[in-house]
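Appendix B. Chain record.
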Amino acid sequence: MNNLRLHPLAVILALMLVAASGLSGQVSAQERLARALALEQNGQEEQAIAAIQGLLDSKSLEAFETGQAWDVLGLAYQNRRDFSSAQHAFEQSLRILENMPAHARAYGMALDNFGELLMALGQPEEAGRIQEKALHVFEKTNDHASVAIVCSNLAGLAFSQKQVRRGRKYLDRAQKEAQLASLDDDNLAAISSMRGWLGVMEGDAVGAVAAYQVALDLWRKRHGEQHPLTGWGYVLLGDAKAAAGELTSALADMRTGLAIIERTQGRQDERYLTAEIGYADVLERSGARAEAAQLKTEAERELQKLHRAQCDGCTISAAAFR
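Structure tokens predicted for this chain:
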């Protein structure tokens, strides 16, 4: 869910553009890379991929910029659910950036991004090792914002494995680090949604509803009503309301979220199918058992097909775990 968060490359590239203002050719390549990053962040993956591939083919980038370009390319492919291509791009980025101690921040974020890919591939142990490695990189550079982001991701990883105490530890640190940094609404929403997840796991339905409402408000503020994250926010809020016994309101929120995700991502989207399964569970609790069973069976079947197609033949390089 964090793969649309603000990437520190946006800040790095902005600084590079200012520093290189006297070098017209270099500025041109950097500007093209910055525009490609903006395309990726705005959900325009196809355009971002074409732009970055053109830059890489032109060989007009310096080594550091090439490492950045591969990282952004990995993000774009991951958002498109092309996990095999995303893996290749992230590994290319890591090979370049790991040998550039002066650019530790970019290396750390490439590690974190690769860790999120591994999580999506169903490899939580490997994902944890990679994201812990990213955390150590950011700790050495005293980068509070990036530490907050990675700790939030590690909290989600722990919660997905039902390691509540471990997840709470990372989440508490993410919130403390966030107070020392300036985070955008996406990252603040991600931390709040983790607090909601913790509330659900600990049986604090009221606290979960409040946390998910904050996350939804932040996503709506940043992206508007018609955006996948906003739709997902409605689904999460509805699920928490169901845990609190507010079934009518829960179903309404989840229907709103499903409609937004369908309009923005389509029905053959992992987030849509996952949300549909959650909606079916709440629907069953409301008494509509036959409708819920059919909906859940179909969604689970489509989700399994999607997972099989997403990364046929993906193999993770051992070099990433050094």
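Further analysis of this model is presented in Appendix C.
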